[in-house]
Write the structure tokens for this entry.
Amino acid sequence: MKDNNQFDDRYLKAKKRVEAIKGFYSNLASFIIVNLILLFINLNYSPNHLWFYWPLLWWGLGVLFHGLKVFNCFPVFGKEWEKQKIKELMDKEKSKNEKWQ
């Protein structure tokens, strides 16, 4: 029974990870397609005033941070950081309670 629960936990974790990766690639594909369209529009209708790089820059930063988070290259606010912060807060609460007892 315990092995089955471990398998279920691993399966759910893997499925969640695959969904996160799939979400990143969807975001990346949208980023590329929309920015190519914006570039085309900008160069065809107002070539003297270039504005396409603003959405490219800001959305690009969002895609970058999304990718760093999905592929665990972003140490701050990752799973390990969460676990460490939870442990830190629990230890702090425990020591505070022991101090007053």
